[in-house]
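[step 3/7] inverse_fold.run input=structure_tokens len=200
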């Protein structure tokens, strides 16, 4: 009888252990599922923020391209007026101002900085993770290096042109006027700068 009781008790104990093990496994599985769900939600939330940031970057770049294209167009208008020896006309004021225009890349990097803190592996898709790294760590850095160089050249050129124009700080949209248009036509530095800006 003792052996039967012992056997029965051992079977009961084994059953209890099995139930506890199953309970632990279920709990671990639920916990893993919860952690994965939290990570997935965090990934989705961050990717949405990055998408919004990238769309802002895109809008800024499109706007900058339009400004650069109009600046190049303005340079062509002024060069044509100089080459054809046309007299000064007020309509040139806007083109004089636009030819001196430059842009700055307004970049939104907050979501990517958050990703670097949380760990790039938060983004499960390997291809997407590489593309994000390439854009932010390579292309954006290159853009800012290029911008620094361009702004330095622009500021140097701008200082040399203060004496050529008046109304430099007039109301935006009204343009600027040369001090002496006939003298400006003979200014080789200004013409070279226009040609350089037109093709840059």
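[step 3/7] decode complete -> sequence:
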């Amino acid at each position: 009888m003792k052996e039967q009781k012992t056997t029965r008790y051992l079977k009961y104990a084994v059953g209890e252990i099995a139930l506890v093990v199953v309970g632990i496994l279920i709990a671990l599985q639920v916990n893993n599922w919860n952690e994965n769900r939290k990570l997935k939600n965090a990934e989705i939330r961050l990717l949405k923020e990055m998408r919004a940031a990238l769309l802002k970057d895109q809008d800024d770049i499109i706007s900058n391209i339009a400004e650069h294209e109009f600046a190049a167009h303005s340079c062509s208008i002024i060069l044509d007026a100089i080459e054809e020896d046309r007299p000064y006309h007020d309509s040139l004021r806007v083109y004089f101002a636009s030819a001196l225009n430059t842009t700055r890349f307004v970049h939104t990097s907050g979501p990517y900085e958050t990703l670097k803190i949380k760990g790039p592996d938060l983004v499960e898709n390997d291809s997407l993770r590489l593309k994000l790294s390439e854009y932010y760590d390579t292309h954006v850095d290159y853009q800012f290096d290029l911008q620094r160089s361009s702004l330095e050249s622009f500021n140097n050129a701008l200082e040399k042109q203060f004496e050529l124009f008046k109304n430099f700080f007039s109301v935006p949209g009204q343009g600027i006027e040369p001090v002496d248009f006939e003298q400006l036509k003979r200014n080789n530095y200004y013409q070279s700068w226009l040609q350089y800006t037109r093709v840059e």
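[step 4/7] annotate
DSSP finds six helices and two strands in the chain.
The radius of gyration is 33 Å.
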